[in-house]
Amino acid sequence: xxxxxxxxxxxxxxxxxxxxxxxxxxxxxxxxxxxxxxxxxxxxxxxxxxxxxxxxxxxxxxxxxxxxxxxxxxxxxxxxxxxxxxxxxxxxxxxxxxxxxxxxxxxxxxxxxxxxxxxxxxxxxxxxxxxxxxxxxxxxxxxxxxxxxxxxxxxxxxxxxxxxxxxxxxxxxxxxxxxxxxxxxxxxxxxxxxxxxxxxxxxxxxxxxxxxxxxxxxxxxxxxxxxxxxxxxxxxxxxxxxxxxxxxxxxxxxxxxxxxxxxxxxxxxxxxxxxxxxxxxxxxxxxxxxxxxxxxxxxxxxxxxxxxxxxxxxxxxxxxxxxxxxxxxxxxxxxxxxxxxxxxxxxxxxxxxxxxxxxxxxxxxxxxxxxxxxxxxxxxxxxxxxxxxxxxxxxxxxxxxx
Length: 402
Known about the structure:
Blueprint: H1 5-22, H2 27-63, H3 68-98, H4 122-127, H5 134-139, H6 143-159, H7 164-188, H8 191-206, H9 212-241, H10 245-251, H11 253-262, H12 269-279, H13 284-297, H14 300-316, H15 323-339, H16 348-357, H17 369-394
């Protein structure tokens, strides 16, 4: 958080030059600098995200004014579905119009047969978001389950606010939150070096050449993400949040930069919290609640990418998707935007499952691996920006933070 956006961008530039000009002649550079420094930096961030997110959400719920929580949840859920639905629709429309996967020699594609898994209904999908064991869910990194428990604990703390013993627990949670923020501030001083390692790995592995269909796929995906960011979000900011989009984007630039650099909405959460409170002046308790839930529950960019990826792979393999299966892709992508892990690479397993569900060989996901990291950076930036947009809308009627 102390590292400026300019230093982070400089680190990305230097890391990219190292990966492009040095790593090809010394492969160990990519392994040591990229994996050790870059991946190590992200791990240090993620190490503290779970206690930070859980403690922030407990405090956010416990500190909400009486009657505010239900309204916050309703508006949060409504705007999450609206923005995610818009993102998926834009992405799928772009694939249908530009057809990036059409006219490809399928002999070069990963071989595989479509498989159809057992049908899973909406109820089972929703139940799957609730863990059977909180400790096991935390160990597996299933943040949604932990956040659900944090909401329930926050509600309990608020209902017993006058109990002295409960006040002690609430004070302990507040202390945990402050300590996590302090540790992450120290980790963030390493951001320029860590981002340089990530950029080195990206450039060294991707290279300068690629298949034409993949280039078209990247162009279509980035274009759709740009429409969501530059058209949909400004309209929502003007008409729903009553904010100047130019001032908003100037204030949230540090969070967008960190999201692009780390490819992790969870790792960007500390920066997003600071931007919301200090840059945008949002009420701290409600902004904290919206952003911690949004780190896993409002992933517009991820949902858009997953919808685009499934239709792209269907075009590559020549699989015709009828209206029902296209509707299923839309529904799966919207739901996956809520349940996909907010960490680098978290979308690929979901895309494979979605492919199998609509008759596309899931092995085709291997085609996306070479460009996934760059697109992960782009869609994570949209995810974090969308979280901040929703936070601005949900708190539009609240007085500014002091």
